[in-house]
Design brief:
346 residues; alpha/beta; disordered N terminus
Length: 346
């Protein structure tokens, strides 16, 4: 049977067009952040286990940082080996493999969410570049935890009282800050902190106000210092580039739209509210999350605010400049630095 040239050409066109279209993966293996916290429970888990299957037909196997028990950048490294497709983890946890990420969240750089989001959006193109270069991943989202405040089991009236104390800091930039005020930074995972405080391994520790309340930090602390000396502890959501490339261009656009609408934007909206609720729950106020505790709320003085900025400029930014290439600091100055009105020396 003869096939006309027109029909043959049409068949060839269909063949080539079909090979150029990629379907969303049948299955996605996703690691969420800490499963005891609101970001995971209210946003990450429903997004990946309900929204994604409904919109793309992909089956999702989901776990969390709490369950995989891989410290630091190990969980992201697993993506290169094809173990996971998507990981949500705290940016500070992976800076040992990618020091350029540290510029995102520096101690005391912003004290309000509006400015914090402006810095993230300004730095986002740089984050995408660094993450793709060092981990072979696509940046999907950047979402804050509540403001990173200080829990102390020892008496505290100002930052000066922390001199000589041992303080848990989740990232090296916070450790630089802690060292600059005369204390000693101690590296512990989030889940190890309550026992460390209880046993006196550390005198104080930094995390989000509601995060600390939910994880029991307030039960082994006596004082709360509410200035966000630890920044915002941003959670970055990343997808393996191998997995990302399996989505068609239209699907990629749709996925990013859904991430922003259903995960990223609501995560930002709730962070400010949870910062306030965490402080209330820890210091005897109205607590919508359980029984209020009775930590002493330490007033933040203008002198302490000035001290935080001084340490940022004189100690933290120079330490960052020593770990990264000059072009990274140039990019920082042109993005976050412009937003907050600070120029780091190179």
């Amino acid at each position: 049977m003869m096939i006309s040239k027109t029909v043959a050409a049409a068949l060839v066109a269909v063949l080539f067009s079909s090979t150029a279209v990629f379907a969303a993966p049948d299955r996605l293996r996703v690691v969420g952040s800490w499963n005891s916290l609101t970001l995971y429970k209210n946003f990450e888990e429903p997004f990946w286990t309900k929204t994604i299957p409904a919109e793309f037909g992909s089956k999702v196997n989901m776990t969390s940082l709490s369950q995989v028990k891989l410290k630091g950048p190990a969980v992201v490294r697993q993506m290169k080996m094809g173990v996971f497709d998507v990981v949500n983890t705290v940016a500070d946890y992976i800076v040992s493999d990618c020091p350029d990420l540290a510029g995102l969240d520096l101690p005391g750089i912003t004290t309000d969410l509006e400015t914090a989001r402006k810095t993230v959006e300004a730095y986002r193109p740089e984050l995408e570049k660094y993450l793709a270069r060092d981990f072979d991943v696509k940046l999907l989202s950047v979402t804050p935890y509540p403001a990173q405040v200080l829990f102390s089991r020892v008496p505290l009236k100002s930052l000066g009282d922390l001199k000589g104390k041992k303080i848990r800091a989740s990232g090296w930039t916070t450790s630089e800050f802690v060292t600059a005020i005369g204390a000693t930074g101690v590296t512990l995972s989030f889940s190890e902190v309550p026992q460390a405080l209880q046993r006196g391994v550390v005198d104080a520790a930094i995390t989000g106000s509601l995060s600390g309340y939910s994880a029991g930090w307030g039960e082994v602390s006596s004082y709360l210092y509410p200035l966000p000396v630890g920044g915002w502890d941003y959670v970055v959501g990343v997808m393996s580039l191998n997995t990302w490339d399996k989505f068609s261009a239209e699907e990629q656009t749709k996925l990013m739209h859904l991430v922003k609408k259903d995960l990223e934007d609501p995560g930002w909206a709730v962070a400010g509210q949870e910062t306030l609720e965490g402080v209330q729950c820890l210091t005897g106020g109205d607590c919508p999350h359980g029984n209020a505790l009775s930590l002493t709320l330490v007033p933040v003085t203008d002198a302490d605010r000035s001290r935080v900025k001084e340490v940022l400029i004189s100690n933290v930014l120079p330490a960052l400049a020593e770990k990264v290439k000059p072009e990274t600091m140039t990019s920082w100055n042109e993005t976050i630095g412009k937003v907050v009105g600070i120029k780091a020396k190179q």
